[in-house]
């Protein structure tokens, strides 16, 4: 499996992040110090966002998981968020390629495993965090 996290939406630069992009981040965080139930190395969401350059009209971020789960979180709640991307020096076995951990968010869903796409969107700034499975069904499956 390739390590790829697609970043799109209301950003200056849509891109595909690789494990090298995470390795090159200036801030490498021991995730256990922030979220004791997890262990490994992460990078701050804010550092990734700085590289991507969200447009001013972006108010929320949708984190899409490989299993069709998605969490929509206001950008204002992501100041302390971390992308866990390796454990014991290796890519994640559970939650590959990255797991989002939001230690101080308002949602009941404060981590999203297997994030494969990060989408910056505009929504009502008052909209709270939300999450759930998309349950995508094609026309041929109906």
From TrEMBL:
This is Molybdopterin-dependent oxidoreductase. Pfam families: Oxidored_molyb. Signal peptide: none annotated. It comes from the Bacteria. InterPro entries: OxRdtase_Mopterin-bd_dom, OxRdtase_Mopterin-bd_sf. Residues 41-124 form the Oxidoreductase molybdopterin-binding domain.
